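Input (structure):
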């Protein structure tokens, strides 16, 4: 287990299960006061994404989905993280959308979810499997 931990930067994953990830997603979606249809669509889009609580969790090159807290958009936008900038007004995430247009997101004005890569999903699944085996063998 320690060898797996050494190969991954994001230690937060070792304390997560799919249930916790989905619970956190549901909690954030509930704050947005979406219609039932919008809520269901958004939740389905975010099933393989993790809520970002801290700037240190954002990986350049990763795919994110985000909700603007200013515009109150009802569906999450999708983009690729290119750069993180610290400015007087807060932390800006420089992104590129799939039309190759660059733009910035102010972290304090958005709810951000980052797509889990295959390594992240493998770690979560492995830890869940190990935990289930330990529980069943007790």
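Output (sequence):
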């Amino acid at each position: 287990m320690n060898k797996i931990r050494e190969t991954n930067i994001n230690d937060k994953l070792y304390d997560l299960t799919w249930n916790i990830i989905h619970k956190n997603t549901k909690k954030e979606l509930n704050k947005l006061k979406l219609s039932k249809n919008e809520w269901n669509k958004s939740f389905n889009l975010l099933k393989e994404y993790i809520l970002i609580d801290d700037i240190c969790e954002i990986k350049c090159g990763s795919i994110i989905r985000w909700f603007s807290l200013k515009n109150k958009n009802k569906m999450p936008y999708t983009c690729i993280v290119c750069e993180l900038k610290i400015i007087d007004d807060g932390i800006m995430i420089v992104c590129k959308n799939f039309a190759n247009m660059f733009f910035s997101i102010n972290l304090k004005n958005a709810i951000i979810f980052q797509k889990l890569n295959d390594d992240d999903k493998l770690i979560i699944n492995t830890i869940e499997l190990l935990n289930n085996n330990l529980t069943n063998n007790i």
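Notes: The chain is about 35% helix and 30% strand. The longest strand covers residues 77-87.
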